């Protein structure tokens, strides 16, 4: 069932939402457990996870978040049973097929991070279509991390940088943190201000290893399909009360 994205009633509300953080990254964990607790196959949890993605994208638009990066499929997720891998990799197409009109209406721009070459062609084409269709939108940028791994991203960046050094497009003196950032999949995007991980685990699981250096972390035991705008706003509220010192005092 398609859930409403931003309905008329909500868009006419005159609530003023506080702004920031600019970039939120989310590890959407707990889909499998959510389904198993209900005696359903794990894939039912992933399917339900799409509804949460829709709710959180909608909340992020309302909160004027500039970038939302969601960990949809990691380079390590290939170790799962093939049937589950196949199912997860079909979800981006399903999500975009149903919600692209709403994403367009809400000025959302779609981007991807990760190695798209390893992804099934029909998913890759659906995602590329959405990237192209939303290219000129300047509202929320939704980064879908697909076949993404932080270590792999850094290695790829180093290889590209090495090639540019050999071609004399870059000198060793010019290599610095900013330069390396420019070679990552997230080039041009602000680094995440806030990382949310649902599902009770407290680890990074190879997500945005370079980019999360000064990010604030917010963990919850709530499983991704149960996560809602309420907890999302709570995370934002706590973030706004934190003092970010970036190594200073
Ligand atoms: C981790 O939970 C979740 C994933 C590996 C898949 C996440 C995918 C979605 C939420 C749907 C993506 C939607 C879009 C928009 C493309 P888990 O399976 O590890 O859960 P568990 O820890 O309970 O086993």
Q: What descriptors fit this protein?
A:
249 residues, alpha/beta, Undecaprenyl pyrophosphate synthetase, 8 helices, 43% helix, binds farnesyl diphosphate
Walkthrough of the structure:
It comes from Virgibacillus xinjiangensis. It is an enzyme of class 2 (transferase). Belongs to the UPP synthase family. The chain is of the alpha/beta class. The chain has one domain: Undecaprenyl pyrophosphate synthetase (3-Layer(aba) Sandwich), CATH 3.40.1180.10. It is 43% helix and 14% strand. Strands 3-4-2-1-5-6 form a 6-stranded parallel sheet, sandwiched between helices. β3, α5 and β4 form a beta-alpha-beta unit. α2 crosses α3, α4 runs parallel beside α5 and α6 crosses α7. The radius of gyration is 18 Å and the shape is globular. The termini are far apart. About 3% of the residues have low confidence. Farnesyl diphosphate binds next to α2, α3 and α4. Farnesyl diphosphate (FPP) binds next to α2, α3 and α4.
Any idea what the shape is?
globular
Mean pLDDT across every amino acid position:
93
Question: What structural class do you assign from the helix and strand content?
Answer: alpha/beta
Helix content class: 40-55%
Class in CATH? Answer: Alpha Beta
Helix count, DSSP H or I runs of 4 or more residues: 8
Give the strand order, joined by hyphens, for the main sheet. 3-4-2-1-5-6
Show unreliable segments.
7-14
Bound small molecules, by name, code or SMILES, are: farnesyl diphosphate
Number of extended strands: 6
CATH superfamily: Decaprenyl diphosphate synthase-like
Strand content: 5-15%
CATH architecture: 3-Layer(aba) Sandwich
Distance between the termini: 51 Å
CATH topology: Undecaprenyl pyrophosphate synthetase
Major β-sheet annotation: 6 strands, parallel
Radius of gyration: 18 Å
Number of domains in the coordinates?
1
Family: Belongs to the UPP synthase family.
Subunit structure: Homodimer.
Function: Catalyzes the condensation of isopentenyl diphosphate (IPP) with allylic pyrophosphates generating different type of terpenoids.
Cofactor: Mg(2+)
